[in-house]
């Protein structure tokens, strides 16, 4: 009668290959998510700055200040869009 141990070992190897494939897919998804966060980094920093400055200065959200910010950043925004 053949020994059932080699069959169990073969099944373990198949499971480990499946686990390795699952681990690679999980790792690829994690790397993709991290790259997505890096792409959003400048936007997140901008949002943090807006919240911080709005809390520190009562005149930050006034129409005149927002107009000044838009005017000063227009040239940089046009150059940035041109590089896309």
- The gyration radius over C-alpha positions equals 27 Å
Structure classification: mainly alpha
Largest sheet: none
Q: How far apart lie the N and C ends?
A: 70 Å
Helix-strand sequence: HH
Averaged pLDDT, please?
Answer: 80
From the spread of the alpha carbons, the general shape counts as: elongated
- Helical proportion? over 70%
Uncertain residue ranges: none
Total strands: the figure is 0
What is the count of DSSP helices, taking H or I runs of 4+ residues?
A: 2
Question: What percent strand?
Answer: under 5%
Can you tell me about this structure?
The protein has 2 helices and no strands. It is mainly alpha-helical and 84 residues long. The model has no long low-confidence stretch (mean pLDDT 80).
